[in-house]
Write a structure and sequence with these properties.
Chain lengths: ~170, ~300
């Protein structure tokens, strides 16, 4: 069957099998390997991408189901050669170690900040609660997202030390 | 790599279109909504279909929560997140807030639907327990029209429903009665997992003149608060989520008290049918049915009392 969707702003049309999962369509058909593929069972959340702006686990969405919809992956986070505030937050606050969960974490963070530009620590932890990180203990991820929120609000210059929750 | 066995993908763009496809393809076809229960089962080859009919385009028609004086109507394609974010619904039935917080995780809740949850008919499924507790009715549509099936008759065993092969669930209806409170209590092995056991409670209060029942300890200005009605629904302790009528009979007309909740808990434990499995022993689940029934009733009564006083 043929499927057409928008991926990172670009319309793509491919011939696919009905059973092809979105995560494999992105990685294998389109070569966008930034989206990681982990548990296969919608538990780990490393495969999270945005579908019409909302985070979804792409291992549990058929590529065919994404037809007609807008998909945004980690490759679509940076705009015009400029890293997204979320990406800079993860850099500045050491929000990753091995990096496996990072694409999914950043996409969920982007969607959270689009809906709620000033989330509390609790709201951040709730938003990423469907995603597993085995390196950071989540603390630095929460700080990274708070950093991005503050950065977007223009209240903090880069690299300033931060305290979680202080800006809320 | 886990992938479903091969199937043909079809997409329905209207309810009639979905029913038409079901009539053409028969029992070789299955509707898929959010897919977060069905696709994992297909990956594990616990379910296989020749055709999968995607009904996500029906969200525009079947994604709604509407209110009349008598009832709430929730469209089958309403997603978990939309339920959890409906302040109006949560004010009427706070049990939805309790349950939604413990269903999987926020990303899964972006996709999963109430219709999909009910049609999956998993005995440990939380929204099924909520619908059972609240005495919901299910609207099932086929080419011949609609029929309304009470929750008690909707599930026909694990993973089986009253929905025929050429029909679909379109709406779930919840009766509204005054002075209500409701709550949901669940124990799971890890956050977002299926319940080891869970209990929902819904209560409706009324008041009688003080002394008419031989009690004078009410705080309610010359009236005793009594339970006009109460319902308890249990999850993961039988082949389907189940309401316990003997609890309603024991609670109706009584003044809420810890002794009463203990009696209800006992009845829950006696009237459920858990089996030992990797989530826990039958004895442990029976214990949970008892304790979670008490907690859910306590919280439901508290919420109803707060509503009466406000």
């Amino acid at each position: 069957m043929q499927v057409t969707m928008t991926v990172n702003g670009e319309a793509v049309t491919r011939e696919i099998e009905g059973r092809l999962l979105l995560v494999h369509f992105l990685r294998d058909t389109l070569g966008l390997t930034g989206t990681h593929w982990g548990c296969d069972t919608s538990n780990c959340g490393t495969c999270v991408v945005l579908m019409d702006g909302e985070p979804v686990k792409s291992c549990t969405v058929l590529a065919a189901m994404a037809g007609g919809h807008e998909i945004r992956t980690v490759e679509g986070l940076a705009a015009g050669g400029e890293l997204d505030p979320v990406q800079r937050g993860f850099m500045n606050c050491h929000g990753l170690q091995c990096g496996f969960c990072t694409p999914g974490m950043m996409m969920t963070a982007r969607a959270l900040l689009d809906r709620n530009p000033d989330p509390t620590e609790h709201e951040i932890r709730e938003a990423i609660s469907g995603q597993i990180c085995r390196c950071t203990g989540y603390k630095n991820i929460v700080e990274s997202i708070r950093w991005a929120a503050a950065e977007q609000a223009g209240v903090r210059s880069t690299l300033e030390p931060m305290t979680v929750g202080s800006a809320s | 790599m886990q992938v479903p066995a091969p199937f043909e993908y079809e997409r329905a763009t209207s309810v009639d279109g979905a029913i038409g496809l079901l009539e053409r393809l028969g029992d070789t076809a299955k509707l898929v909504a959010g897919g977060h229960s069905l696709l994992p089962m297909m990956k594990l080859r616990l379910a296989n279909f020749e055709y999968l009919i995607d009904i996500n385009d029906l969200h525009g028609d079947l994604g709604y929560i509407t209110f009349t004086a008598e009832e709430v109507r929730i469209g089958a394609m309403t997603r978990h997140r939309e339920i959890a974010e409906s302040a109006e619904l949560l004010a009427v039935f706070p049990i939805f807030a309790d349950a939604e917080q413990v269903i999987a995780d926020p990303v899964v809740r972006n996709r999963g639907t109430i219709g999909g949850s009910l049609c999956q008919a998993d005995p440990a499924e939380d929204l099924s327990a909520v619908c059972t507790t609240l005495g919901a009715s299910c609207v099932i549509r086929g080419s011949g029209g609609e029929r309304v099936v009470p929750m008690a008759e909707f599930h026909r065993g694990p993973y089986e429903t009253a929905v025929g092969t050429t029909e679909m669930l379109t709406e779930v209806r919840f009766p509204i009665r005054p002075y209500a409170g409701s709550a949901y209590e669940k124990v799971e092995r890890r956050a977002g997992d299926w319940a080891v056991a869970a209990a929902g409670a819904a209560v409706w209060l009324s008041s009688e003149p003080r002394g008419s029942r031989g009690r004078t300890d009410s705080e309610n200005d010359g009236h005793d608060v009594v339970l006009a009605d109460a319902r308890v629904g249990l999850a993961a302790v039988g082949p389907n989520t189940v309401e316990i009528p003997s609890i309603s009979a024991a609670l109706r007309g009584q003044t809420p008290s810890e002794e009463l909740y203990a009696r209800a808990g006992e009845l829950a434990a006696q009237n459920c049918h858990p089996v030992t499995d990797p989530r826990g022993s039958a004895d442990y689940k029976r214990h949970l049915a008892d304790e979670l029934t008490r907690r859910a009733l306590r919280r439901a009564v508290q919420r109803a009392t707060d509503q009466v006083r406000s």
